[in-house]
Design brief:
heterodimer, A: mainly alpha, Rna Polymerase Sigma Factor, Chain: A, Arc Repressor Mutant, subunit A, 2 domains, B: mainly alpha, 12 helices, 80% helix
Chain lengths: 192, 263
């Protein structure tokens, strides 16, 4: 990682945050430009619907603007922003789950739908399969997996973004892969 | 299935190319001779490949989005929503938000005012009933000084007017001239002034002034007992009284003393 760039990014973000606090729209747009794709990847990985993911991106930046005064200068802005994005996505999934629970019909429909997909080889979608397994991972493991595999971040960058150590990233990634292997053992043809 | 523990926890990082080159090289050497690790690596590769499928899907979705436009749309929406929120939250909502603070402030002020009043509560003066009733918050000695100055000024005025009258009596040779200026109204007016002065002189303890004022009052009271048409004898008697009591001299002395005290 280029430390100089790291410091430059940090200073730039601190500057932009200060400007946003003063009501600068241009500064806010720059933050949106820098982070919208990262937030989308996270949201899409969790909800698997483009429109829903885009709504979550919108909601995330709305929340960022509302909470900008709670951001402490010097803290990891990226980690702060992604934490908000993750919370919003989790809330969305909870609401969705709750709505589905409320309707017995929808549960039945979902069950039939899942069964039909699993039993019909022509409808087998590896992307769906892995994504469902990823969705069931514990939060931090899921986040490390998404950041590494979909956002293509190096361990060092993930550590910086999540404000955790390099060793923790490595460990979380390993655990995530082990869980996925276990969950997808029939499809992978292995014994785990 | 047997497992090799040597690099078990490192294969994920190895495939992700997140290890030091030296360590990767060591693991590659190990891989050449360990079938268990080869199998382990194959399964992880397969999983990575599956995640690659999702990544392809994700990339496809992302390519379909106009990111430049999206950032503008998001910013505009956030700005518009904030403005709408400000408009839809009228002033009362802000007031409601700050109401607990305002209530606390008002309560604090009231308590502060109450305790301040209890601590610096003005003492009721036995001398200045009128002033304490007027609720003027001035130091008691200031009020006292003002009263004294006013009493002095009014006493000097009273003594002046009395002195003129007494001088006129002394200078008048004919009883009918004396009757012209010694009207009952004039004397009564001076007697009324003296009544008003009595309270003040008592309060500020101007004893000498009070004594001479009392003598003048006595003389005026005697004058009121006389008939409007003064006889020569009556006029003479009045002159003698004035001289006998050395009223003019005493008035001058008291006036001088009062004037000096004023300075």
């Amino acid at each position: 990682m280029d430390l100089r760039n790291g410091y430059a990014d940090k200073n730039r973000e601190e500057f932009l945050v200060e400007k946003i606090k003063q009501g600068d729209k241009e500064a806010f747009m720059r933050i949106v430009s820098s982070y919208q794709q990262k937030v989308f990847i996270l949201a899409y990985s969790m909800v698997r619907e483009r429109e829903d993911a885009l709504d979550l991106v919108q909601e995330t930046f709305m929340r960022i603007y509302e909470k900008i005064n709670t951001y402490r200068p010097g803290a990891n802005f990226s980690a702060w922003l992604m934490q908000i994005a993750r919370n919003i996505s989790i809330d969305f999934l909870r609401r969705q789950k709750s709505r589905k629970k409320d309707s017995l019909d929808s549960i039945d429909t979902e069950r039939i739908d899942l069964q039909s997909k699993e039993n019909d080889p022509s409808r087998f979608n590896p992307g769906d399969m892995i994504q469902k397994a990823v969705a069931r991972l514990p939060e931090k493991q899921k986040l490390v997996f998404i950041l590494h595999h979909y956002e293509e971040l190096k361990y060092e960058e993930i550590a910086k973004r999540l404000s955790i150590s390099l060793g923790t990233v490595k460990s979380l990634h390993f655990k995530a892969i082990q869980k996925l292997r276990k969950a997808l053992a029939p499809q992978l043809g292995g014994s785990r | 299935m047997k497992s090799c523990q040597k690099y078990k926890k490192d294969w994920v990082a190895y495939l992700s190319r997140q290890l030091e080159p030296a360590k990767s090289q060591q693991m590659e050497e190990h891989l050449k001779h360990c079938s268990i690790c080869q199998q382990e690596l194959e399964q992880i590769k397969e999983l990575f490949s599956l995640s690659g499928d999702f990544k392809t899907e994700l990339q496809k979705e992302m390519e379909a989005i106009d990111w430049e436009k999206l950032s503008v749309v998001i910013t505009d929406t956030v700005w518009k929503r904030q403005e709408d929120r400000k408009k839809s939250w009228p002033a009362w909502s802000y007031r409601w938000k700050w109401q607990p603070v305002a209530a606390g402030l008002i309560l604090g002020l009231l308590l502060g005012a109450f305790f301040t009043y209890r601590v610096v509560k003005p003492q009721k003066s036995s001398f200045f009933v009128i002033r304490s009733e007027s609720k003027l918050s001035v130091p008691p000695d200031f009020v006292e000084k003002v009263d004294l100055a006013l009493a002095r000024r009014e006493t000097i005025d009273y003594l002046d007017r009395s002195q003129y009258l007494l001088l006129e009596i002394l200078q008048t040779r004919k009883p009918d001239e004396a009757s012209a200026f010694l009207t009952k109204d004039k004397i009564q007016k001076l007697l009324n002034e003296k009544k008003y002065l009595n309270d003040q002189l008592d309060q500020v303890r101007l004893l000498k002034a009070k004594a001479i004022c009392d003598q003048i009052e006595l003389l005026f009271l005697e004058l009121t007992q006389l008939s409007p048409e003064l006889s020569e004898a009556e006029l003479q008697k009045i002159r003698e009284l004035i001289e006998e009591r050395q009223l003019l001299l005493k008035i001058n002395l008291v006036k001088k003393e009062l004037q000096q005290s004023e300075v």
